[in-house]
Amino acid sequence: MKKGLFGLAALGAGAVAYAVRSTESNGSTRSEAPGATGADPLRPPARVSGSAAGREPEADSQGTAAPSARHPGFFERMRDDVRAVKERDPAATSTFEIVTSYSGLHALWLHRLAHPLYKRGVPVIPRWISQFSRFVTGIEIHPGAQIGERFFIDHGSGVVIGETTEVGDDVTLYQGVTLGGTGKEHGKRHPTVDNDVVVGAGAKVLGSIRVGENAKIGAGSIVIHDVPDNATVVGNPGHPVLLDGQRVGIPDIDYTHMPDPVAEAMRCLVRRLVELENELDELYPDRKAKRKAKTAIAERFIEEYIDGFTHGGGI
């Protein structure tokens, strides 16, 4: 029995990998099944490039809404998902490995099954799919969340995405990320994440806030306020550090060179203490030698402490 189940799973994974590789080689798309008259139920709601999922299309000069771009077919979207993994994860070695081994990809595909059912008001079943996905992958995506194209969850364990979350295109999340709410209020209560955003491991983005395009959120940050476009956010609560506005290529975070506002505040305090000590030396010159002898060790300790803190030693 077990051998049969494993054989079926391997056969299904091989079929998916073959379909993905086929669309990569010939560029063919399959937007609808033969004879179908309606839209593909696995396609997301209309989206416009440059904005997060669910936003209204921009109007043209006559005031009419601009037409939205054609949505890719189901297998074309799968191909794009696999390609996104190859671009953003250097550990990915083959299409077959990605299709069979990446829990973030499995959670995304299961969500694409649950989301249209949720939108059509189907009771219970979308949540069953969501909970099955959580059981299998360790990733919980509410079926009501709107997810854009080429969404990538790296490692994935512990990721939680709330019901009214809106995620744009080319977004990357690392393990332990929460896109959640802050209370029991109804309506829009989860974040809106624009295109090309990277959220580091363990970060929490809470409330009905907007994370701007091309923003980066450092590991362990807790973000409760809007994040501007092209900004890097670190700390608790998150502090944005504006960049030059230049768009980066493949999403990445250089954790060893992230700005640290807490360490900078401590440097300011140390500088102010030195200034006060110099003023005391001017007021009481007879105590200068004695004070310097006592504070020499303390100054060396502070220097070592600050240096260790800025290199990740912690408090």
Question: Summarize this, please?
Answer:
The protein is of the alpha/beta class. The chain is 39% helix and 11% strand. The protein has a domain of 50 residues.
Q: What does this 3D model show about the protein?
A:
- The structure is a single chain.
- The chain has 315 residues and is an alpha/beta fold.
- It has a domain at 261-310.
- It has helices at 2-26, 74-88, 95-101, 103-119, 125-137, 261-283, 288-310; strands spanning 140-141, 146-147, 152-153, 160-161, 166-167, 172-173, 178-180, 192-193, 198-199, 204-206, 210-211, 216-217, 222-223, 231-234, 239-242.
- It has a six-stranded mixed beta sheet with strand order 3-6-9-12-14-15.
- A hairpin with a 4-residue loop joins strand 14 and strand 15 (239-242).
- Helix 1 (2-26) packs across helix 2 (74-88), helix 1 packs across helix 3 and helix 4 (103-119) runs antiparallel to helix 5.
- The protein is elongated.
- It starts with a helix and ends in a 5-residue tail after the last helix.
